[in-house]
């Protein structure tokens, strides 16, 4: 019985999963995104991560095993001294990233996992039938 269920699971087409994350550095949210992406990839899903900032020299080693694309790194990460405006800048960077992926990147995907709620309405502008998930980090 268990073998039959295992064979049925293997015959199901695996979705293509796209992660949108503002800054793929070293932190708790980044760890969560990477763990989820690696787990899905281990299950046979096609996984891609899009981010507004990625530095291969300052990231978790596992991120180098995944296809990571970057768009919007030229946008500011803050508005002044002491990290002022970091949240506003992260919001703007994610809007730019979502619009870039939807309209310019020519990506094909079945599921989008967004790290900020702003991506949900923007991701819904994509073709019908896509699933959009949010993992808002507080």
Automatic annotation (TrEMBL):
Keywords, comma-separated and alphabetical: Transferase
Coiled coil: none
Superkingdom, natural source: Eukaryota
GO CC terms of this entry: endomembrane system
InterPro entries: ALG2
GO molecular function annotations of the record: GDP-Man:Man(1)GlcNAc(2)-PP-Dol alpha-1,3-mannosyltransferase activity
Protein name per the record: ALG2 alpha-1,3/1,6-mannosyltransferase
The species this protein was found in: Pan paniscus
